[in-house]
Give the backbone structure.
Amino acid sequence: MKAEEVRSVKEEAIASIKSAGTVAELEEIRVSYLGKKGKITSALKELGMLPAEERPVVGALVNEVRQEIEQALASRREELGKSELKAKFEAERVDITLPGRKPNVGRKHLLTQVTDEIIDIFIGLGYRVAEGPEIELDYYNFEALNTPPDHPARSTTDTFYVRKAGDRPASDDALLRTHTSPVQIRVMEAAKPPIYVIVPGRVYRRDAIDPTHSPVFHQVEGLAVDEKITLGDLKGTLEVFAKAMFGEDREVRLRPHFFPFTEPSAEVDVSCFVCNRRGCRVCGNGWIEILGAGMVDPNVLAQVGYDPETVSGFAFGMGVERIAMLKYGISDMRLFFENDMRFLRQF
Ligand code: PHE
């Protein structure tokens, strides 16, 4: 190859390198000039065929041209690499301004929230939380709570029996507990006074479901046993609770009632937080019943081995559904159990 030709091969190579659009194309160009059978490689091989005086000149030129081509390849490769990468980034671009998909975060069911709120109020008064089994023995649910065998609550029309031996209730019959009061007995059997416990839990009764009844519902029980506990302590404690739960201006009143395991017993009302006792659709006469309570019956204290002469106590039990319905203005208990998120999400 003459010097002239070498130069024109170089021009041609440089031009095609410049116009190469991809790294792959560039590689083809490299092979066609610098590969085994490439034009520049051949030129080197053919040097021997030139007249002796031309060889050093053309040889030097070919080497120079090879280097120039190599350089041109390298710099074009870098350029193309960058723009190919850029194109790749462009194609895979993520629009970070798009709003993300919010994960569905769970929440506590309103009944759990209200239960927690009740518990917190009593924790603040120094109570601790106790729990007991939902499948309970007749003994704890009724017998130890001073509830005689012929009491209507013990009949199969009012209670779900899991295992029932005979026609008459027996203390080892198993049943779904009808209230959280059996946990009073379990706590007292396991410890000595002073006792201050709050007992949340699920309870069961043979009721048909309607706006104010459900065969499964929730209660929170309270029990305080100590020296010199009085009815005044019960009323004061419930007043603190009512104010914390329903507002600072609330008052409570006790109406005489009957429970087999408390003496005296009372139904406890809170002054209406909607009308402030003037009388309205929610309360009727200015007062709203919120729970049952009383002084622990001496028979119950004796049953667990306490001395009713030296210790006394009070107990109360409230329905969580009822408290939640009052506080949040909910008119139908079934809403709690239908799991309609449109309802549950509001709280
Ligand atoms: N266990 C009673 C009920 O379910 C409520 C109650 C609890 C009453 C404690 C007095 C004392 O109706």
Observations:
- The chain has a mean pLDDT of 93.
- The domain at 110-344 is CATH 3.30.930.10 (BirA Bifunctional Protein; domain 2).
